[in-house]
Each structure stands twice: as C-alpha cells, then as structure tokens.
From TrEMBL, chain A:
<keyword id="KW-0732">Signal</keyword>
<keyword id="KW-1003">Cell membrane</keyword>
<feature type="region of interest" description="Disordered">
    <location>
        <begin position="29"/>
        <end position="54"/>
    </location>
</feature>
<dbReference type="GO" id="GO:0015386">
    <property type="term" value="F:potassium:proton antiporter activity"/>
</dbReference>
<keyword id="KW-0050">Antiport</keyword>
<comment type="function">
    <text>Plasma membrane Na(+)/H(+) antiporter. Exchanges intracellular H(+) ions for extracellular Na(+) in 1:1 stoichiometry, playing a key role in salt and fluid absorption and pH homeostasis. Major apical Na(+)/H(+) exchanger in kidney and intestine playing an important role in renal and intestine Na(+) absorption and blood pressure regulation.</text>
</comment>
<feature type="compositionally biased region" description="Pro residues">
    <location>
        <begin position="831"/>
        <end position="846"/>
    </location>
</feature>
<feature type="transmembrane region" description="Helical">
    <location>
        <begin position="389"/>
        <end position="412"/>
    </location>
</feature>
<dbReference type="InterPro" id="IPR018422">
    <property type="entry name" value="Cation/H_exchanger_CPA1"/>
</dbReference>
Automatic annotation (TrEMBL), chain B:
<dbReference type="GO" id="GO:0005737">
    <property type="term" value="C:cytoplasm"/>
</dbReference>
<keyword id="KW-0106">Calcium</keyword>
<keyword id="KW-0539">Nucleus</keyword>
<keyword id="KW-0449">Lipoprotein</keyword>
<dbReference type="GO" id="GO:0030154">
    <property type="term" value="P:cell differentiation"/>
</dbReference>
<keyword id="KW-0963">Cytoplasm</keyword>
<keyword id="KW-0649">Protein kinase inhibitor</keyword>
<dbReference type="GO" id="GO:0004860">
    <property type="term" value="F:protein kinase inhibitor activity"/>
</dbReference>
<comment type="similarity">
    <text>Belongs to the calcineurin regulatory subunit family. CHP subfamily.</text>
</comment>
Length: 846, 206
C-alpha cells in the first residue's frame, strides 16, 4: 500500500511539472529528454517560469531559486525510470499473481494505468516511447545481455534451425501478411483504406519479427527444454536483424514508388539484405576481438574493467548502425563471441560485476519498455479504428506463424537428428510474441508516404497486447497441458560434467570411426582451432590453462562449499571457530598420547625432527619437502600474522576510507583460504562418513560422549583396512576423522613426504609454488596470490595457522577447534558435519 | 564387384537390420567403412583402429577402441575381451549410437536409455565387476585431462576424488559401520545421470 502511495505521489509531482511543456510541444514531445529536443521554455507557465536565470531583471539576490527548466529533462528521465521500476517492484511483490500472469503483461497493464492518469490530467498523451529512445537507449542493453549470456553450445548446435526460422520464417511472415492484407483490401474486407501493396509489405515486415524482449520475458518463467528455448530465443534475436533489414528495404521501395522498382532494384534489395546481416555480424565479431584483447591488459585498471565490456558493446551497436548494418546482430554476436574470453581474462570480481550490471541494465530497460508500451496506448491520436484491418492482422499473424513454423520444421526435421516434436512445434508457433521492436518500427514510419500510419501503429499495439498479454498468460498452461519436455533447473554435479566430457569425446571418436562427418566433427575442429589460435591470441596466458570445463565445475563446487560453510558457521553463531586457536591445544597432547602407542613409527618419525609438525595425519597430510622447509622459515611470519589478526581484527572491519580507484571488499584473504581448506575437508569427511561407515554427522550429536569415545581408533578400522589394503593409492582412507587415524594412517606419513600429493586435497594447485618465495611470504598469502582466482583447497595454510606464537612443536588441525566449539554449543547447531568421533573438550581435560 | 558382394550381403543385412535397427542404407555405409578400416579383411583388430588418423587426438582413444572389443557391448551376455571383431560386432557396437525413433513408449525409452548408459558405464568399468572403483574413475579422468596438457595428473586425481566423494554423498546417504564405498554401481550411475538426456544426446548421424 505504501508503495502505491508513493507512486501516486510521484505521479502527481510529474503531472504538475509536465503540464507546461506538454501544452507547448504537444504529442511530439517525447517522454525522455534523452532525445533532447530543443525546448520552447514556456515562460507563461506558473511553476516552471518562476525562477531561474530566465527572469528579467534581478532586483534582489535570491537565496533559493526554482530552476525546473534546468533540470527538467534528466529529472523526468530519472523519475520515469523510478516509476517504472517501482511498478515492477509492486508487481513482483505479489508473487501469486505473477505465477499466473507474466510480468511483462502486468507491466503493460500498469502502463495503461499510468497512461490513463496522465491522460486524465493532461487531456493529451505527453509521454510516449519514441524510436530514438527505444533503439538507442533501451534496446542495446537488452541485446548485449542476451548476447553475452547466450548459451553458446546449444545456440551453435541449433544455428541451422535458428537461421532457417529467422530468415525464411520472417520473410514468409512478412510476405504472407502483406499480401493477404492486400488481397483482403481488394476483396473489400476493410473498407476504404489508402494503402498500396508496398505499404502492406512494409507493414508486414515490421510485424514479422518475433520480439526477443517479449519472448524472453515469457519463456523465462516457463522453463521449456533447452532446445526449444534456444530455437525460439535465437530466432527472436536474429530475426530482429532480419526485420530491420526488410523494413529498410521496403521503406526504400515505398519511397522509390511502385513504378520505379525494377529487377535491378529488387536484386539490390536482396544483396543489401545479406550485406546488412553478415556485415553486422562481422562488426560484432570484430568488436568482440577488440574487447578480448583489451581485457588482456585491463587488470591494471580493474575498477573500470567491467565498463569496457559495456562501452564496446554499445559502440559495436552504434558502429553497425552508423554503417547501416544490422545493429542488433552486431551486438548479439559481440556478446556471443567475447563472453568466454572476457570472462576468463577478467578478474572474478569484474566478471561478476559485468554479469550483474548487465542484468540490471537489461532488466531495467525491459521494464521501462513494457511500461511505456502500455502508456503509449492511452492516446486518442493514434487510435484509428478499423475492425477489419485489426482483426485480419491478428488472424493472419497467428495463422501464418503456425503455418511457417510447421512447414519449416517439417523440412528441418528431415535433417535433424532429434526431430522437434509436434507439441514443441505448437509452443514454438505460439511463442511468436511481437513486442517493442515492431512498435518502434511502426512509429518510425513516414507519415507523408504512408497515410494510414496511425492505423498501423494502433494495430501494432493491439497485436503486441494480444500476443504479450493473452498468449503470455496462456503459454504456461499450454506448456503444462501439452506436457512439453521441460527443463529442470539444477546444478550439474561433477560426475555429470566429467561424464559429459567423456561422452563428447566418445561421440567424436565414434564419428571418426564411422567415418562420417557430423556436427561433432565440426565442433571438435572448431574447438581445436580455438584452443590453438583464439585462446592464444585472446586470453591471458595465466588463465589459459584453467580453461577446462571440468576444472571449472570443480572450482565452482569449491566456491559453493565455501559459501555454504560460512553460512552455516554464521547460523551457528559466529565465525569465531575459524580463528579459535586456544581450544584445541589440549587435544594435541591428547592425540599425541593416543597415537603414540598406535603409531610408533610416526612418533619416531616425528621425533627425529624431519617432520616438525602435524603428527596427526589428516586428509590434508600433504607435505611437500619444500614447504616443509619453508614452514620453518615462515614460522616467525606466522606468528606475526597471528598477532596481526588478533590485534587488528576489530579495527580492520571498521576501517573507513574513500578511494575512487580502490575498491576493496572487506575480506581477509587468509580467512578465505582457510575456509576453502575447511570446506574441502568437509567434503571429504562427508564422503568418508559414507564410505567408512561411520555414522553420518547429524546423529553424532545424539551420541553420548562415552559412545563417541569408544568409537575412535576402533577395531572396525582394522577390518576396513583389510578391505583396501591392497590398494596403495586409495588415499581416501587417510583419516581426517578421528576414527580414521589409526590403521589407515600408519603407512602413510612417510610416503606423504615424498609424494606430491595424497588424498583428496588438491596438490596440483600448488605445484607451482616456488620454495624461495614461500620463505618470505606467509603461505596463505602466497597461495592467495598464486591461486587468487582459483580455489586452492590446500590444507597447509590451515595446518600452520593454528600455531600459537609459543613454540609448540606440533599442531592439531584446526578442525578440533571447530569441534570443540561445536560441542560446547547447542545440539541444534548447524555446523558442518563434525567428524565421526570428536573427542570433546571436557573429555580430554579429564 | 559391388553387385557381387551385395548379393550374399542382403540376407546378412536383414539380420543386422533386425538386430540393430539400422536401415539397409546405413548398413551399406558402415560396411564400406568397415572394409576401408580393415583393408578388405573380414575382421578388425586394434591396430586397425589405431591407424585412424582423426582418432589419434582423442584423449580417450584407448577406452573407445576397447569398447569395440568388449563382449559386454555385443548385446550378448558375454564378458571379457576379444581380439578381433567381425562386421556384425562392429555394427552392433555402433548401434549404441543410433538416434531414437520418434515414437517410443516410456519403456522403450527407458530401455534405450539403459543400454546407452550401460555402454558408458562399461567404458569406465574396465575390470567388469559391476562397480566403477575409484581407481578406474581416476584413470578415466586422467585420460580425459591428459590431452589438455595444462592440467597435471594431480589435478585429475583430485577432481576424480571430488567427483567420487560427491557420488558417495549423493547415492549413499547413510551407511552402516564396517561398510565402505566401493564404487559406483550401475544403479547409482543411472540415478546420478538422471537429468542427462542420454537417449537423445548419445546419437550420431550415420
């Protein structure tokens, strides 16, 4: 309620403010000053003319003046954007409504209301969507966004189908609609209209395009399967280019006039069609290359790094437009091409910023577009009603869309490996939503040459409303009713990714064996080419090696874990457990005792000093020789670090400051490292709890302490040991959980020192560690430096961290500290799965 | 020459069509390819596959080739490896990659799905004990990443480990003491790859 009040309030302000100019410049006055039409300052207006510099002679020094005219244009823009977004907010707040009616439809309806209010106040429509605003300010962000976030693989896999639909389908739609309407006019179905064949074709071409904005808005909420989605969406994106071209060609024809069009002109038209489409795409790719190269060096200006992506995208749009090539295609391919390299080259923060900002702009622009589509309707001037014309247009659009889609799919299905099913074709046809592009083009029509311009605008609006609102609302029920294969929204597991890669290679291999040249063959060739040339040219050397799908998932999973871990920790109280170093000191002794009898070899090993710390083998038992050396040297630094952490902790978090160039997210690099290590271990623990048959984490809390004490190092381990004793490499058994310590660890520590990696930790990520470096830099810092962008689930830093400045020889892994704080807390604690048999603090103190 | 060969071929073709679902035309194409690969011999050996030029760059070449000599993929209940295969086996193995027909019942779809996944599973499960052990899985991942040349063996290992870990936590939520996770069984494999539209994706144009 409060929000709607606010909206009304803003509206009132607006209305009062706008009365003056609206009287003066009438309907042509656009809503947004971005068009910066020269204003005729209406000095007679009471509110606007009051102050400012415009007033005649200054008799006295004004303390405050009212300078509406100065700020009017940007002010109105800002206000309108605000109002539109507020509308969206209100709509989104009513979730049960958006479940039934798509947001785009609701936005249009709110546009009706706003338009009505303005109309009621002004008696004339002051604001409407102008083509300039639409094509130069509102559309580009949306197109950049869709290009940049285009799922490339399905897009290129289905590129053939997409192109067929976008080019042939659109031409078919345009031609059939134009011709049929013309036929109907001759047949006398629409009364007396002053429209010739060419004008009808022009109208047909502007109505032909399926609108990406509308399609995306509706299909986003429906979740149809990938193939269907990409075909509809890809078609809507590419056919925008096609429509604009068609529109221009027919527009030129109309101005040439019927008699002067001969075969040569028509051929020129066709040629220009291809030039415009391909030229536009090429411009886009060129800009994509530029941005990729540019992002190789932007790391020095990280703070504006994301901006480059936007600016070049916009420039690609404008450049293509300047060359009268297809701007939409240009920007689309710009995004499609550069996404991979840009994402890889930029810092992770920048990449996130780009994605997020793109969504902000695109979503914002989309909202504004829909609202203004609604507002534009409330205008007496454009409504020239001709029932026959409007109804016939609607009918033809629907019918020909169905016919075109079915025919093209029938044709395509003969060559498709997986044919599109009938229901999918129905959805495709039904998804032919028209939107703002059609409206923008209609408004661009030249009134002098096309007498019935207003009728066309009105009809376009009706079609847009019909498709977006009615078809939008019925889309979801239809998809459900027809049982179209839908997409599950979920994360892919690592196994799936691995299998997927395996699977792709298998397909290529089998294709090679069968001697056929198929899609996989080309994809493979392209991938090789890309790896060899494009990546070399367009990617930073440092990130090239990380370009592996599997690795990427691995990374993502680790990140996710880290986030979850922190979240869980926060739920449980605080992150204090991460830094808690005192509680586990007692364990150390305890464990030492416990293990001394079980693992004599370890003890001797330790005592001879080679292995100066961490007698308790954990999963993270990952001891490079070099780091061992480094560790000792780093001790002092460690101590400093610890002191540092404790002493400055509180202040660090409240450090204020401002710098335009330096944007630091307040996070502790070391802390992040620690978190990663912990989460890796958690994964392992949960695995082991499954594997080793130790009771899963949650039941642990129910155990009495005695039970817990009984469990560790038990006999069950011996059995288990035998089960994989032959398996030298089976390092999962390196117990991180206390219960796993005994048998499984005995053989390992020696080996661990020689081997680069063991178990589940990620030694590979640290192989490039330079021992000399690590002498000076604390290991966690070192790691964060080397692997700043990737997860380094190394346990070393964590192992060292708990060291207190005092000269303790060995350390217990931090997890004990977790556990101790855990056990001291309530049972409902949602801390990550504690290892099976945590010896609680009080036990050890006994 | 072609006419002469096609005469005795027809009967065999009928047989194969029934068995694999390929059309005559497709079998003809495959026949040609088979001849080409085997240098006009009646059987194919591993060397013949090793000679295929395009295949040399495939990271999992070994697994793919082995799949052709694996009895489990011949739609029989056999086990173990063979040393050479005839045309029939060749086609049968190839038929795992046939696109599904348009109109299928749910059971058919499920059956095809299982068959295809079984093929993949067999590629992992080299010792044919019904589970993909960690060893086997690591091996596959290593091979997969070996060609990229930039990731070390250790990375492969840790990725395999993490994947295995995930599998274990997904498929076996709770295990009794004394149990340990031996590896991925086929049932788990099926379950894990539930969202993987293999029936439509594991297809090749023949």
């Amino acid at each position: 309620m409060a929000t709607s009040w606010r909206v009304t309030l803003f509206l009132c302000t607006l209305l009062m403010a706008c009365r003056g100019p609206s009287l003066a410049s009438g309907e042509s006055e656009c809503r947004m000053a971005r068009n910066s039409q020269p204003q005729t300052p209406s000095s007679d207006n009471g509110t606007a003319g009051e102050g400012g510099h415009g007033g005649g002679t200054v008799t006295t020094l004004p303390i405050v003046t009212w300078r509406w005219e100065h700020v009017k244009d940007p002010y109105l823009v800002a206000l309108w954007v605000l109002v539109c977004w507020l509308c969206k907010m209100i709509i989104e707040a009513n979730h049960h409504v958006t479940n039934i009616i798509p947001e785009s439809a609701l936005l249009i309806c709110s546009g009706f209301i706003l338009g009505g209010i303005i109309w009621g106040a002004d008696k004339v429509q002051t604001f409407s969507l102008t083509p300039t605003t639409f094509f130069y300010y509102l559309l580009p962000p949306i197109i950049i966004d869709s290009g940049y976030h285009m799922p490339n693989k399905p897009f290129f896999t289905n590129l053939g189908a997409i192109l067929v639909h976008a080019v042939i389908g659109t031409c078919w739609n345009a031609a059939s609609l134009g011709l049929s309407l013309w036929g109907c006019q001759i047949g006398g179905a629409m009364g007396d209209l002053n429209i010739g064949l060419l004008q009808y074709l022009l109208f047909g071409s502007l109505m032909a395009a399926v609108d990406p904005v509308a399609v995306l808005a509706v299909f986003d909420q429906v979740h149809v399967n990938d193939v269907l989605f990409i075909i509809v969406f890809g078609e809507s994106l590419l056919n925008d280019g096609v429509t604009v071209v068609l529109f221009n060609v027919f527009d030129a024809f109309v101005s040439l006039g019927g008699p002067r069009i001969n075969a040569a002109e028509i051929i020129k038209g066709i040629v220009s069609f291809f030039v415009v489409a391909f030229g536009g795409s090429l411009v886009g790719v060129a800009f994509g290359i530029i941005i990729s190269l540019l992002t190789r060096c932007t790391y020095k200006v990280q703070i504006i790094e994301p901006g480059f992506v936007f600016i070049l995208g916009y420039l690609s749009y404008l450049t293509a437009d300047m060359l009268s090539l297809s701007a939409i295609l240009s920007t689309t391919f710009y995004g499609v091409f550069c996404q991979k390299y840009v994402y890889a080259n930029m810092d992770e923060n920048s990449a996130h910023t780009v994605r997020y900002a793109m969504k902000v702009f695109a979503n914002g622009a989309e909202t504004v577009i829909f609202v203004f589509l609604g507002i534009s309707a409330i205008d007496k001037l454009i409504w020239v009603w001709n029932t026959g014309f409007i109804l016939l247009t609607l009918l033809f659009i629907l019918v020909y869309r169905f016919m075109g889609v079915f025919f093209l799919n029938w044709f395509l299905n003969r060559y498709r490996l997986i044919p599109l099913e009938f229901v999918e074709q129905v959805i495709m046809s039904y998804g032919g939503l028209r939107g703002a592009v059609a409206y923008g083009l209609a408004v661009m029509l030249d009134e002098n040459r096309i007498k019935e311009k207003n009728l066309m605008i009105g009809t376009t609006l009706i079609v847009v409303y019909f498709t977006v609102i009615l078809q939008g609302i019925t889309m979801k029920p239809l998809v459900l009713w027809l049982k179209v294969k839908r997409n599950e929204v979920r994360d892919k597991s690592l196994l799936e990714r691995v299998t997927n890669t395996l699977f792709n290679h298998t397909l290529v291999g089998i294709e090679d064996i069968s001697g056929q040249i198929g899609d996989n063959y080309f994809r493979n060739k392209w991938r090789e080419f890309e790896k060899k040339w494009l990546m070399w040219a367009l990617m930073k050397p440092s990130v090239r090696k990380k370009q592996d799908q599997i690795f990427d998932v691995f990374h993502q999973l680790n990140l996710k874990d880290a986030v979850e871990y922190v979240a869980e920790g926060e739920q449980g109280g605080s992150l204090e457990f991460i830094r808690n170093e005192s509680a586990f000191l007692d364990f150390k002794k305890k464990f030492e005792d416990e293990y001394s009898d079980m693992m004599p070899d370890i003890m001797t090993y330790m005592s001879n000093g080679t292995m100066s710390r961490d007698p308790i083998p954990s999963v993270s038992l990952e001891m490079h020789e070099q780091t061992m050396k480094a560790m000792r040297e780093a001790e002092e630094v460690n101590a400093h670090h610890l002191l540092d952490q404790h002493l400055y902790k509180s202040r660090k978090e409240h450090r204020h400051g401002f710098s335009r160039n330096n944007f630091e997210i307040n996070r502790d690099a070391k802390e992040v490292q620690e978190i990663f290590q912990r989460t890796m271990r958690n994964r392992l623990e949960s695995f082991k709890s499954a594997k080793m048959g130790v009771t899963p984490p949650k039941t642990i809390t129910k155990h009495t302490k005695k039970e817990q004490q009984k469990m560790p190092n038990g006999k069950s381990m011996d059995k288990k040991k035998s089960s994989y004793s032959g398996d030298e490499d089976f390092e999962f058994s390196e117990g991180d959980s206390a219960s796993g310590y005994g048998p499984s660890c005995t053989p390992f520590p020696m080996r661990a020192t020689n081997r680069t990696g063991a178990g589940i930790d990620n030694p590979a990520f640290m192989l490039d560690l330079d021992p000399t470096d690590s002498l000076q830099i604390p290991p966690w810092l070192l790691e964060s430096e080397l692997n700043s962008s990737m997860v380094a689930p190394s346990q070393r830093a964590q192992e060292r961290l708990p060291r207190t400045p005092s000269n303790l020889d060995r350390l217990t892994p931090l997890r004990f500290s977790i556990r101790s704080s855990d056990t001291q807390q309530t049972d409902g604690d949602l801390l990550p799965p504690p290892p099976p048999s945590p010896p609680p603090t009080d036990n050890t103190q006994k | 020459m072609g006419a002469l060969q096609s005469l005795p071929g027809q009967a065999e073709y009928c047989d194969l069509t029934a068995k694999t679902g390929f059309s005559f035309e497709q079998i003809g194409v495959l026949r040609k390819r088979f001849k080409q690969l085997s240098h006009n011999e009646e059987t194919l050996r591993r060397d013949h596959f090793n000679e295929i030029h395009d295949l040399t760059f495939n990271p999992i070449r070994a697994q793919i080739i082995e799949a052709f000599f694996d009895r489990r993929n011949f739609h029989e209940d056999g086990q173990g490896k063979v040393r050479e295969i005839g045309f029939e086996e060749f086609v049968v193995v190839m038929s795992h990659f046939r696109p599904p027909s348009l109109h299928m019942t749910e059971e058919q779809r499920e059956k095809i799905r299982k068959e295809k996944l079984r093929f993949l599973f067999n590629m992992h499960d080299t010792d044919n004990n019904g589970t993909i052990t960690l060893e086997e899985y690591r091996h596959v991942v290593e091979e997969l990443l070996s060609r990229s040349g930039t990731l070390e063996k250790e990375t492969a290992k840790s990725i395999a480990d993490a994947a295995m870990l995930e599998v274990a936590s997904i498929s076996v939520g709770h295990m009794e003491p004394d149990e340990f996770y031996e590896g991925i069984t086929f049932e788990h494999f099926l379950k894990l790859l539930n969202g993987f539209e293999i029936e439509s994706r594991m297809t090749i144009r023949f």
